[in-house]
Design brief:
Strand order of the largest sheet: 11-2-3-10-1-12
Number of strands: 24
Shape: elongated
Number of helices: 21
Structural class: alpha+beta
Strand content: 15-25%
Oligomer: single chain
Mean pLDDT: 74
Largest sheet: 6 strands, antiparallel
Radius of gyration: 30 Å
Length: 652
């Protein structure tokens, strides 16, 4: 009786402890058996059609699920400088891919160069994804391992099938964390429902660069595609969709572990295949923990560390208004590999000499973040120009120009920073502030993510602004003040311009050259830190967007306001919305528009010679399809210029 009870109890325990292993596979019809009957057989597999072994021992197949499962496509495009010619074609291919997503499919789009940027979060709509794909812009170096590793960690907790689709053309040129390829491989292997598919543009993908990605793709059940051009991404995406559409899940009972066997996580070689006579091929789509190839091991060249508690800046806080200051110091990537420039030649003759540096360098800098009260963030994000203008007009120009504290000598290059500190920065920005926590919880794009992934998402968005764009926007704001009869802010900008031009004149003081101010996008989808960067050098040669050496647009505005009757000739309520100036210093343009926007009125001032203090003449012109009222305003302004003898084309 006791023996019978023990047998019954043992039977119950065995039933309770039975486990099931879902193993995704891709199902294909065998070559040479492409007839309709074979294709139909492969679309309706039964457990008896499939064989599963663990370390060579057969396991019992319970079921085959060939229904459509939810899929998340994580699409990442390498946007480093060498990818510039490919990006338009890649963007169009991804936009088309987004429009064809099925209801069960989601996607996120991201880009990586010397930074990792989330362009469209998981769950974004098709139109948002397509718009993000068409916003691909090339950068400088390639931060491949860190970006791939961080994305894998953020995908780990998401349920369902996950596909990481990576488009790249080469190796990792900027390593700033201790992340080797082994850790990337381990992260991919730890996610049971993830596969890596890589499109490698063959022009510069040497075998020594592509070997790790080839091994990780194969081990995860993915594929590495060698292609020749960006146009080849579209067929690669089509093949991926076909393969995912043909996926199934084999569900089997794992073999019992022998006494003394290691706990879960030990390597068990699983093989899934069709039985003899079944006209199908099953390709495993689950990561395998295979030994990593010895030839692919690399060691990161440097590490980035951060330390909260750097110096404060009460004068910056006073200029920006109410809020709290978070100061910290960081060891950053201060000098990139790639183009280097000689700032001494830039200052003397406005000419740059480019050299090459094989590896990046790090250095310590003091940085600051100014956190406004949470309520002000709900009003929408301020532009970087608005923040910079607040500092300039409020007498805080010292907060905008940050001296180079790296001490790397005369040759430094454009670079980005805070790669390691951003998640911690985002966490400390919101911690201890209930209002900020409520704002973060309400963000539609990140609310569903786990806490760690949410912080990563918040930290991923940085509002990088080229210095030329920023300084032209500052001139536009100063010109608007002058035309409105206000002078203080414009005067401060003119007085501080030599310092701004010196700091932003060439790629000479990399990284953050202004304090960071957290802001929310208008739709509340992301939290970011506006950051001003220096002119981006192209892949070779000097920067293509040199910083204005003098505030010619602001000089033009001051000159125009001194002409009798010109201010009265402008339509009521119109203001300067943008400014521009020629690189050679021959002209500057102010664009004016009504409050509701629309076609603009352009006031173009021409200078007698480069770096002249005041224009010699000006003219008003209309944009194409200019509204009737704006065209009339252009004629009135031209008449005022003609009466003053300052209309271009008339005698001075």
């Amino acid at each position: 009786m006791i023996a019978l009870a023990a047998a019954v109890a043992l039977s119950v325990v065995e039933q309770v402890e039975v486990r099931r292993v879902p193993w995704p596979v891709s199902v294909e019809t065998l070559p040479g058996t492409m007839d309709p009957a074979s294709a139909a057989r492969c679309r309706a597999l039964a457990p008896a059609d499939v064989e599963v072994t663990e370390d060579g021992a057969p396991a019992r197949v319970v079921a085959i699920d060939q229904g459509e499962a939810p899929v998340l496509y994580a699409v990442v495009v390498d946007t480093s400088g060498s990818m510039s010619e490919f990006l338009p074609a890649i963007g169009e291919a991804l936009a088309e891919f987004a429009t064809k997503l099925a209801p069960r499919e989601q996607a996120l789009f991201a880009s990586l160069d010397d930074d990792f940027v989330l362009l469209a979060p998981p769950g974004a709509g098709r139109d948002e994804l397509a718009a993000a794909a068409r916003r691909l812009r090339y950068g400088t170096n390639t931060l491949l391992r860190e970006s791939t590793h961080d994305l894998l960690l953020s995908l780990e907790s998401r349920p369902g099938r996950k596909i990481l689709f990576l488009v790249t053309d080469g190796g990792d040129s900027q390593a700033v964390k201790q992340v080797g390829w082994e850790r990337v491989a381990d992260a991919a292997a730890a996610i049971p429902d993830l596969s890596l598919f890589v499109v490698g543009l063959a022009r510069s993908s040497g075998w020594q660069h592509t070997l790790p990605l080839r091994e990780i793709a194969a081990a995860s059940g993915g594929v590495y595609h060698d292609v020749g051009h960006g146009d080849d991404v579209r067929p690669a995406l089509a093949r991926l969709r076909e393969r995912i559409a043909g996926e199934a899940t084999v569900i089997y009972e794992p073999l019992p572990q022998p006494a003394g066997a290691p706990a879960a996580g030990s390597r068990v070689r699983v093989r899934v295949r069709a039985r003899e006579g079944v006209p199908c091929r099953l390709i495993s789509a689950r990561a395998a923990r295979a030994p990593f190839p010895a030839g692919a091991r690399e060691v990161a060249r440097q590490a980035v560390r951060w330390e909260i508690g750097g110096p404060g800046a009460p004068e910056c806080a006073a200029a920006l208004g109410a809020g709290r200051w978070l100061g910290f110091s960081a060891v950053e990537n201060c000098v990139d590999s790639g183009p280097l420039y000689d700032p001494a030649r830039w200052r003397a003759r406005r000419r740059l000499v480019a050299r090459e540096r094989a590896a990046p360098e790090t250095g310590a800098r003091a940085l600051g973040v100014f956190v406004r009260p949470a309520g002000s963030q709900r009003e929408g994000a301020e532009s970087a120009a608005a923040i910079a203008w607040t500092l300039v007009a409020g007498g805080g120009i010292d907060c905008l120009v940050r001296p180079d504290q790296g001490g790397f000598g005369p040759l430094v290059a454009h670079g980005r920073t805070l790669l390691e500190a951003r998640p911690e920065l985002a966490r400390r920005t919101v911690e201890g502030d209930a209002a900020w926590e409520r704002v973060a919880a309400q963000m539609s794009a990140v609310a569903a993510l786990p806490g760690d992934a949410r912080t990563e998402t918040l930290a991923a968005w940085l509002g990088d602004v080229p210095s030329r764009e920023l300084l032209l926007a500052l001139q536009a704001r100063g010109a608007a003040e002058l035309l409105a009869g206000r002078d203080a802010g414009a005067t401060r900008l003119e007085a501080g311009w030599p310092r701004l031009a010196d700091a932003f004149g060439a790629a000479t003081a990399v990284g953050v050259v202004a304090l960071l101010v957290p802001t929310l996008e208008p739709d509340g989808a992301a939290l970011g830190y506006w950051r001003i960067v220096l002119p981006r050098p192209p892949f070779a040669g000097p920067p293509s967007d040199p910083t204005p050496h003098a505030p010619l647009a602001l000089s033009a505005a001051r000159w125009l306001t001194a002409l009798p009757g010109l201010r009265d000739a402008l339509p009521a309520g119109w203001s300067v919305t943008a400014a521009g100036q020629a690189d050679d210093g021959s002209s500057a343009t102010l664009w004016l528009a009504p409050p509701e926007g629309g076609p603009r009125l352009a006031l173009e001032a021409r200078f007698a010679r480069a770096r002249a203090e005041a224009p010699r003449c000006a003219l008003a012109r209309a944009e194409p399809a200019m509204a009737a009222a704006a065209a009339a305003a252009a004629r009135v302004v031209d008449a005022v210029l003609a009466r003053a003898g300052r209309r271009c084309g008339t005698p001075d």
